Amino acid sequence: MKSISQDNHFEDSFSQNIIEFFKLYHVGQLLRRSNACKKAGVPVLLIFMFAFRMAFASKSLYMEERLNEGSIPFSKDTFYRFMNSCYTNWRRFTAMLCAAIVKETIGSATSAERIKVLIVDDSIFSRGRSKKVELLANVFDHAKKQFTRGFRMLTVCWSDGNTTLPVNHCLLSTGNDKNLIQGASDKIDKRSNGGKQRKLAQMKATQVMLKLLEEARDAGIPATHVLFDSWFCMPAVIIAVKEIGFHVIGMVKKSSKIKFRVNGKMQDVKTIYKNGKKRRGKAIWKLSVEAVAVNGEKETPVRLVYVVNRNKKRDYLVLATTDMSLSEDEIIRNYGKRWGIEVFFKTCKSYLKLGKECRSTSYDAMTAHVSIVFARYMMLAVEQREQVDNRTYGELFILTCEEMADVTLDYAVKLILMEFSKEIANADILDCKELAKIVEHFISNIPSLLKTIKSVHKADIKVAA
To answer: The whole model's pTM is what?
Structure first.
């Protein structure tokens, strides 16, 4: 019995936004290109749209069936088969959707000179109450400083400094049998995308990161630099990322095991800082050193920048980059874009039901769930960019700014006075009373900024006239 009537006005209005988002970026075509297709029956796009809007409607599949009987044009088994499919390449779908959004919407609103980056980081995908989830493992949560059941969600995001978009991801398990709670299913064909995804989940995080970066490059994501924290910033990883075609900006761990070659000697960052000549005063960075990252026979030049830690003034942070053309201030400013992925994780977990909506034991279903949550975030990011950021006007905004920059203050005043002189010249009566009225009317309509300038007053205007 339905004791409370449901108001679907908000859902209907939001569904229109979802439909427009799907049409603009051709989500149906992206699903087909990702091998998410069906030969007969319910269209895949309809199932995906239903899963997409569940978080915004604050309902589940069960509650939707109970409250609106007959409103869902497919059965729950159809929905579960869609989520559990091992043939859909969800990493490809997320990357292609991100590339489409950047090309169609954000690219025209961002200057070509602005550095676009890829951000790499991981977050805990918790399944604390589960036991039989595929590839479930005990993973270490660095925030809580303890082990928990779940996965490490390794994610690559794109950012221009204003908007952050997810590119692809991988739910990392473990290659250590001692930490593995549940193994992979034997029913999955190892040649399928699901079989390859499970194999990738048990590889080292650095190897998976390189795979995700290669997929982002092949998808046409416009980025030149890769940002990551100290967990990934090692000479071997720096050289590998540079070989893929990206520059690196990362934070180096102050460890005696991580060394760079400076002046022909292999030294850790603490020794380099101790022997270097620091800048005096309240500078943001104290030392900048040109070094070489070495991994066997491979090497690449890097710049090490020692930045003052704002939380501990006597402490410092070490940033390393392979882009030697960047200044120290540019290195620090561009590394600040890494914070966008932290906001992304917080939004997905707190508002978009990441890790809470899907309780399936299938690894494929969890991968699909994460990709759907990422698609929700991308739609919200586009809405925020279009409604809040004036730069979405694209070329019109840029041309307007250039036009305003070309008109200086003295030239603007000159134009105003010329228009005033034309107005007086066109007047029929030139007696003092009429002229005074024209002057008063002119002064009352000039910009408020010019009214505050002492040099602009009645006497000057009369003389100019």
So the answer is: 0.80
